[in-house]
Amino acid sequence: MTPPQALERDWRTPLELLVLGAIWGSSFLFMRIAANPFGPFALVEVRLALGALVLLPFLWRERAHFRAGLWPKLAIIGAINSAIPFLLFAWAAQRSPAAIGAICNAMTVLFAAMVGFLFFGQKIGLRRSLALLVGFIGVVVLATSKAGGLSVGGAVMAGATAALLYGVGVNLVRKHLAGIPPAAAAAATLSCAALLVLPFAATHWPTHAIGAGPWGAAIAIGVVCTGYAFLLYYRLIHRIGPARAATVTYLVPLFGAGFAWLFLNEPVTPAMLAAGALILGSVAVSQRAS
To answer: Sorted alphabetically, which keywords does the UniProt record give (predicted)?
Structure first.
C-alpha cells in the first residue's frame, strides 16, 4: 500500500509543475503589457526589487552563509542570471508577441548543457549534441519568421541570448553557490541585480503617467513570477530533483502563447508552432539523455 506521504507528494508535484509553468508563462504576457509603458530598465528594476523583497526573509535567516568575499560573485551571477536576461526579454517584449520570448526561454536547458560541456567539464553525449542542433534549427525557424507582418528576428536573438545567459548562470550557481540555501542565494543575486540596474532605471524612468494595468502587470512579474516562482521552483527541486523540476520548461511556451492569444489576441503562427515543436522536442531528448 502506498504511504499517505507519497500519495500527497504524487498529487502535489504535477499540480505545482502546472502552476509554475502557468506563472512563468504569464510573465511573458505581463511583459507585453508593461514593457512599453515602463521601458525595459524601469520594468526590470521593479521586477528585481519586488522579487528580492519577497525572498529577503530567507536571506536574513541564512545570512551567516554570506561572507564578504562571496558578494562579488553574487553580483556577477546576478547580472548574468537575472539583470541582463530580464532586460533582453523586456526589450523583446516591446517588439514581438509574447510567444516569441516564451519559446526562446525553453532553450535554457539546452544552453545549460552546452555551457557545462564547453567550460565546466560536463559530458554531453551524441544524443544531447543532436538535440542542441535541432534546438538551434528551431531558433533559426523562429528568427526568420514574421508575426503580424513584422520581422521578429531581433526579438528572437534577444530571447535566445537571454536563454544562453540563463544557461551560463545555472552552471555558475552550481559551481560557486553550492551549499548555500537556494532561496537565500536567489534573494542575494536578485538584490545585487536590482542594485546594478538601479542607476539605469533612475535615468530611464518614464516621465509620463503609468496606468493601473501596466503597474499591476509589473507588480505581478516581480511578486508572483519572480519571488513566489523561485520559492515554488526550489521546493520542487528539493522534492523531485533538478532534472524532473526542469520539465516545467515544456509548459512555459504553451502557457505563454496561450495567455497571449487569449488575453491579447496575439496570433500563434505556423512558424511559431514549428519552432516550438523543434525546440521543445530537442529539450525533451536532452532531458532524457541526462
So the answer is: Membrane, Transmembrane, Transmembrane helix
* Cβ–Cβ under 8 Å, residues 120 and 175: yes
The 8-class DSSP code of residue 64 comes to G
- What is the per-residue burial (b if ≥16 Cβ within 10 Å, else e) of 107-119? bbbbbbbbbbbee
Whole-model pTM: value is: 0.90
Which among 107, 117, 90 is positioned nearest to 30, based on CA atoms?
Answer: 90
Owner of C-alpha cell 509574447: 98
Query: How many beta carbons lie within 10 A of that of residue 69, not counting itself?
Result: 7
Region 53-64: what's the mean pLDDT?
95
- Number of neighbouring beta carbons within 10 Å of residue 79: 18
H or E element that contains 11: helix 4-38
Pair 138, 196: CB distance under 8 Å: no
What is the tens place of the pLDDT at every residue in 64-98? 999 999 999 999 999 999 999 999 999 999 999 99
Q: Residue 147: phi, psi to the nearest 5?
A: -130, 125
In this model, does residue 151 exceed pLDDT 80? no
**Residue 1's pLDDT band (boundaries 50, 70, 90)?**
very low
What nine digits make up the cell of 79? Answer: 547580472
Q: Environment class of residue 221 by beta-carbon count within 10 Å: exposed (0-12), middle (13-18) or buried (19+)? A: buried
Where residue 189 falls among pLDDT bands split at 50, 70, 90?
very high
